[in-house]
Amino acid sequence: MIKILFVCHGNICRSTMCEFVMKELLRQAGKEQEILVESKACRTDEIGSDTHPGTKRALQAHGIPFSKRKARQIQRADYDAFDYIIAMDEENMRDLHRLTGGDPQGKCHLLLTFAGEEREVADPWYTGNFEVTYQDADKGCRALLQKLIS
């Protein structure tokens, strides 16, 4: 089984959005038994919090199912447990490099690199634009799924 962990700052907006988008894409592709998807935070700001209401609205607007959850923080053991650790921005990548001792196995990636773009997924906590973040999450998740199943 392939294991994917999406990470962002607080695990209530971007990584959570990607988790639910990817789970739905996997369901549609009939691959949900082959690929495990979770999400966690790099920082502790929102630990225990549910998904941000703006993220929920964006997911609802696109027909993506989601469930109640609690933000969790990534641990060093997650590096060994997951095959792909997908970050949303360069700050997340710096946090991952510190946590993993420089990503010796090359598991950490920025989401949009799978779509051929060298840029970050904007944090809607600051921008307020959950639709733009959804579009990036969808684009990155679709590209990652293509890489995994082709």
Give a short synopsis of this structure.
Residues 2-147 form the Phosphotyrosine protein phosphatase I domain. With 150 residues, the chain is α/β, with parallel strands linked by helices. Helix content is 44%, strand content 14%.
What topology does this entry show?
Elements: E1 2-8, H1 14-29, E2 35-41, H2 53-61, H3 76-81, E3 84-87, H4 90-100, E4 108-110, H5 124-127, H6 130-149
Parallel strand pairs: 1-2, 1-3, 3-4
Helix pairs in contact: 1-6
GO molecular function: protein tyrosine phosphatase activity
InterPro entries: LMW_PTPase, Ptyr_pPase, Ptyr_pPase_sf, Tyr_phospatase_low_mol_wt
Family: Belongs to the low molecular weight phosphotyrosine protein phosphatase family.
Characterization of the model:
Pfam families: LMWPc. One of its GO terms (molecular function) is protein tyrosine phosphatase activity. With 150 residues, the chain is α/β, with parallel strands linked by helices. Helix content is 44%, strand content 14%. The chain has a 4-stranded parallel beta sheet with strand order 2-1-3-4, sandwiched between helices. Helix 1 packs across helix 6. The protein is globular, with a radius of gyration of 14 Å. The two termini are 15 Å apart.
